[in-house]
Amino acid sequence: MIELVQLTKRFGDLVAVNDVSLTIPRGEFFALLGPNAAGKTTTIKILTGLIRPTAGTALVAGFDVQTHPLEARQRLAFVPDFPFLYDKLTPWEFLRFTGELFQMTEDRIETGARELVGRFNLQPYLRKPIEGLSHGTRQRVAIASALLHAPEVIVLDEPMVGLDPHHGRVLKDILKERSQRGMTVFVSTHQLSIAEEMADRIGIMHEGRLIAVGTREELRAQSGTAGALEQTFLALTAQEANLKEETAHLAA
Q1: Which residues have CB under 8 Å from 109's CB, separation 6+?
Q2: Domain hosting residue 4, numbered range
């Protein structure tokens, strides 16, 4: 459902994404990890059509996000770490607006919205302007609106930002339920616990490169560690940094 083919993005002399290729099948829960400035958010922005790659291709459900953007976006939902909402609307108006954008019927909007409003405890806020809501409540509205049209693929960048433990658990449960029903989930996060608990496979980026992809067990084997994902992550990124240093030393 997601395919990245030799994806590269340059900003002047900076190579933010460096020849990244990745295939994520239907129904997989995939977590992307990496230190700051690893290229995760840039990769997501290319995948969701927000920026153009310097080279390479990103496909969603078989559609190139650059050459067939409407077809790709009809099948895609995206929740950034700080989502944009129309502040003058109420959450209920925003949900209806989102459903109409995706040409959902009134019955589907009503049924889907009621379910998500209930699970995210949004009832007390439905008639209040979004501009007056807390960051965590705004985040719940954004996630509910992203899930409303039952996307084939959902991409989330640091989705737990602003969520309390209860609603973080609700989100995890919904994402797992939907991935088991065929929705592809792509999550970028610094919270290793999310990847360890939820992901079918994990990717690790470092300085623009995808240095490792696999199950938790496969990554442990590659890193030579046997403990928690934190140990695996630190070992793999340290190996990559050491390799780069050795290569630079030899080149000098």
Answers
A1: 95, 96, 99, 100, 148
A2: 1-75+156-216
- Give the closest residue to 92 by CA, choosing from 111, 117, 74, 69: 117
Q: Give the CATH number of the domain where residue 64 resides.
A: 3.40.50.300
The alpha-helical segments, DSSP class H, found in the chain are: 40-47, 69-74, 91-101, 106-119, 135-148, 165-180, 192-198, 216-223, 229-251
Using CA atoms, how far apart are residues 19 and 207, in angstroms rounded to an integer?
11
Structural domains of the chain, count: 2
Residues 162 and 145 reside in one and the same domain: no
Q: What are phi and psi of 33, to 5 degrees?
A: -115, 160
pLDDT in tens, the chain (252 residues): 899 999 999 999 999 999 999 999 999 999 999 999 999 999 999 999 999 999 999 999 999 999 999 999 999 999 998 888 999 999 999 999 999 999 999 999 999 999 999 999 999 999 999 999 999 999 999 999 999 999 999 999 999 988 999 999 999 999 999 999 999 999 999 989 899 999 999 999 999 999 999 999 999 999 998 888 999 999 999 988 776 666 655 555
Pairing of strands 63-64, 55-60: antiparallel
Asked whether residue 142 falls in the same domain as residue 22, the answer is no
The closest alpha carbon to 195, from 239, 235, 229, 159, belongs to: 229
Q: Bridge-partner residues for 209, per DSSP?
A: 206
State the burial class of residue 44 (Cβ atoms within 10 Å of its Cβ: 0-12, 13-18, 19+): buried
Q: What is the spatial distance between Cα 157 and Cα 126, in angstroms, rounded to a whole number?
A: 25
**2 CB neighbour count, 10 Å cutoff:** 22
